[in-house]
């Protein structure tokens, strides 16, 4: 009797295992298909502006007798750097007129309309530092 | 950050005067592949110096300016003279308009591949994202009454701290309500966060600044929206302990990366060491209920019933226990400790003081029944001190006067609080973006 019960139990277990296998396979296949399935997503990018090419200023050919402005944008150490450049011009190109200016305003990006007007009127060339 | 390039391009094109900008060599990639192109003068004659210049003696600089530029290999002073005198080539005289594209409007692939594509195209923060399908974005858009194609703002990798009358250093990209929603989906936001995100996006302020200082940004959120979207302002308020606190800052980052072209290392990101707070920014919902003072936004002129977000920028915040003035003692003079810490801050950003409710209450009970009164005390000269001098700032001319902002958040389980060099410069109404 016991033997019969055990055999029946084993048969039921085997059958349930056999029946569940396809379901498990189907589930795995479905997951695999989902992973392989292509979807469409939206780009998160913004819109870049158009670039306007600006003309560079004509060059004088020589700096002899010209006025070169050395403009300090305000970053640390630029005064020393431009001071050494001024000394170099005096020693090596004495006919170049050097003018040193510290750009005004509240920071590196600040405009200095007064200085720009002075440059437009008096400068033949500008060396500006320092981008860091 | 090369404001010098932007100024020189304006001097060349608007004033007609030739220039040579001086840039340190570490900024070559940024200037050559980004700045000069985006500003419309790709052949600007830049001379690159031996990096860095700051910190060197005059004697050393004297030697370096007659050495070879690390970029061109030419003697630096000779290159400057040549840059100012050599006639322009045909290429250098070119004018016209070049249209730019940010790439395709959609991507189609398997989810795993799309995660990879978004990462490779640097459209993420290198953490997995929620993929922004049309359905998810449509759901996100239900969080606002504004139309998807409404332009919200324009963003660049750097916003001048001085406000108006500043040269534009980086180009501004524009974005719509839908762009904000797409990035919000990617960050894991819920639709009800959209009014906060749109209010932040409307300020045009980038979350990831280009600055080599490695700045971080912050948001202080006040008003009814805090409870509506379940922002945490109790225990662990500044940490990742609610969905809103964890994803709003990330969405702002992703928007900045994708819609503002920020955070691209070497061009639109130059932070020397970086900042771990850049992962999510400093997100602070004020604990208005337990604060002994008026809410932060009311002190800025808003009504208590308004929902408001305030944008902050600076170095970030850390525990006051970091300070030598804040060692554990049986009796703590909290007003005095805050005063000493605040006056040790750099003048560039001043101080953001993030008090927990118990410390704020201690301070109120010490006689400071309003934040204004306490701030006056903080900025008044200390005993034996002639003037209230903030620590000297190591930046350029005219940058900053010490400002103090005080906000209350967190739990009341102990007497811990935080501070940092962060300035709060603008507050905007969230409600108009509902």
Overview of the structural elements:
- The complex is a heterodimer of chains A (132) and B (434).
- Chain A has 132 residues and is of the alpha/beta class.
- Chain A is 45% helix and 20% strand.
- In chain A, α2 (78-92) links the parallel β3 (67-72) and β4 (97-102).
- The radius of gyration of chain A is 40 Å and the shape is rod-shaped.
- Chain A starts with a helix and ends with a strand.
- The mean pLDDT of chain A is 87.
- In chain B, the strands form four sheets. A four-stranded mixed β-sheet of chain B has the order 8-7-9-14, covered by helices on one side. In chain B, strands 10-13-11-12 form a four-stranded mixed β-sheet.
- The chains are: A alpha/beta (132), B alpha/beta (434).
- At the A-B interface, α1, β1, β2, α2 and α3 of A face α1, β1, α2, α3 and α4 of B.
Mean pLDDT of chain A: 87
Rg on CA atoms of chain A, Å: 40 Å
Query: How many β-strand runs of chain A?
Result: 5
Helix-strand category of chain A:
alpha/beta
Shape of chain B: globular
The quaternary structure here is heterodimer
- Spell out the helices and strands of chain B N to C: HEHEHHEEHHEEHHEHHEHEEHEHHEEE
Measured on Cα atoms, how large is the radius of gyration of chain B?
A: 24 Å
Number of distinct helices of chain A:
3
Poorly predicted regions of chain A are: none
Mean pLDDT of chain B: 92
For the biggest β-sheet of chain B, the strand order reads 8-7-9-14
**Major sheet summary line of chain B:** 4 strands, mixed
| Biggest interface, CB < 8 A | A-B, 70 and 116 residues
C-alpha end-to-end distance of chain A = 93 Å
Number of separate strands of chain B = 14
Whole-number count of domains of chain B: 2
């Amino acid at each position: 009797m016991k033997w019969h019960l055990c055999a029946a139990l084993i048969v039921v277990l085997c059958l349930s295992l056999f029946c569940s296998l396809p379901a498990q396979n189907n589930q795995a296949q479905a997951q695999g298909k989902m992973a392989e399935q292509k979807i469409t997503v939206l780009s998160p990018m913004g819109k870049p502006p158009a670039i306007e090419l600006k003309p560079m200023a004509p060059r004088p050919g020589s700096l002899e007798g010209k006025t070169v402005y050395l403009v300090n944008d305000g970053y640390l150490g630029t005064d020393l750097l431009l001071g050494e450049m001024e000394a170099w011009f005096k020693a090596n190109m004495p006919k170049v007129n050097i003018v040193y200016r510290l750009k005004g305003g509240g920071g590196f990006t600040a405009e200095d309309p007064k200085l720009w007007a002075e440059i437009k009127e008096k400068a033949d060339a500008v060396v500006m530092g320092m981008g860091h | 950050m090369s404001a010098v390039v932007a100024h020189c391009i304006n001097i060349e094109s608007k004033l007609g005067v030739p220039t040579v900008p001086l840039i340190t060599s570490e900024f070559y990639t940024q200037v050559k592949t980004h700045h000069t192109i985006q500003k419309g003068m790709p052949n600007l004659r830049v001379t690159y110096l031996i990096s860095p210049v700051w910190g060197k003696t005059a004697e050393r600089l004297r030697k370096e300016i007659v050495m070879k530029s690390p970029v061109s290999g030419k003697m630096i002073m000779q290159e400057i003279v040549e840059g100012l005198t050599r006639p322009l080539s045909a290429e250098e005289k070119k004018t016209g308009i070049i249209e730019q594209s940010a790439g395709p409007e959609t991507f189609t692939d398997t989810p795993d591949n799309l995660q990879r594509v978004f990462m490779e195209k640097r459209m993420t923060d290198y953490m997995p994202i929620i993929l922004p399908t049309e359905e998810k974005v449509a759901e996100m858009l239900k969080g606002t009454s504004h139309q998807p194609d409404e332009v919200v703002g324009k963003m660049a990798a750097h916003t001048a701290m001085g406000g108006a009358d500043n040269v534009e250093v980086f180009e501004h990209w524009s974005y719509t309500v839908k762009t904000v929603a797409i990035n919000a989906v990617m960050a894991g936001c819920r639709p009800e966060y959209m009014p906060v995100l749109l209010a932040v996006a409307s300020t045009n302020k980038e979350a990831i600044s280009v600055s080599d200082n490695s700045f971080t940004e912050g948001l202080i959120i006040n008003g009814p929206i805090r409870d509506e979207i379940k922002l945490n302002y109790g225990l662990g308020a500044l940490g990742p302990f609610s969905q809103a606190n964890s994803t709003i800052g990330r969405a702002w980052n992703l928007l900045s990366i994708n819609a503002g072209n920020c955070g691209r290392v070497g061009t639109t990101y130059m932070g020397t060491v970086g900042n771990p707070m850049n992962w999510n920014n400093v997100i602070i919902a004020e604990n208005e209920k337990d604060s002994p003072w008026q809410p932060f936004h009311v002190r800025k002129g808003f009504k208590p019933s308004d929902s408001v977000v305030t944008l902050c920028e600076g170095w970030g915040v850390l525990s006051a226990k970091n300070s030598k003035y804040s060692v554990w003692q049986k009796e703590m003079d909290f007003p005095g400790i805050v005063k000493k810490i605040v006056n040790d801050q750099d003048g560039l950003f001043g101080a953001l003081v993030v008090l927990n409710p118990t410390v704020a209450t201690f301070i109120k009970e010490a006689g400071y029944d309003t934040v204004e009164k306490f701030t006056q005390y903080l900025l008044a000269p200390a005993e034996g001190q002639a003037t209230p001098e903030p620590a000297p700032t190591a930046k350029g001319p005219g940058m900053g006067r010490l400002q103090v902002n005080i906000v209350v958040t967190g739990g009341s389980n102990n007497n811990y609080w935080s501070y940092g060099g962060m300035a709060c410069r603008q507050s905007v109404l969230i409600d108009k973006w509902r």
